[in-house]
Write a structure and sequence with these properties.
Distance between the termini: 36 Å
Strand content: under 5%
Shape: extended
Structural class: mainly alpha
Radius of gyration: 16 Å
Number of strands: 0
Largest sheet: none
Length: 61
């Protein structure tokens, strides 16, 4: 287990949100939206592209 500083507690709740959604059969909407996921995947793809090309890659918004 990793101790978090008090100012970061409550910020990262992915696992807790996931379990709440499963237990409630999807009635609880986790904080991140689909659009948040799309933005996250754009960043991940840009990192992979940057590494493959060995150059900076712009992230489309």
């Amino acid at each position: 287990m990793v101790d978090l500083p008090p100012e970061l507690e409550g910020e990262w709740r992915v696992e807790e949100d996931f379990l709440a959604a499963v237990k409630s059969k999807g009635r609880v909407r986790p904080h991140p939206t689909f659009e948040d996921g799309v933005r996250y995947m754009r960043v991940v793809q840009a990192v992979a592209d940057s590494r493959a090309r060995n150059e900076w890659v712009a992230i489309k918004s």
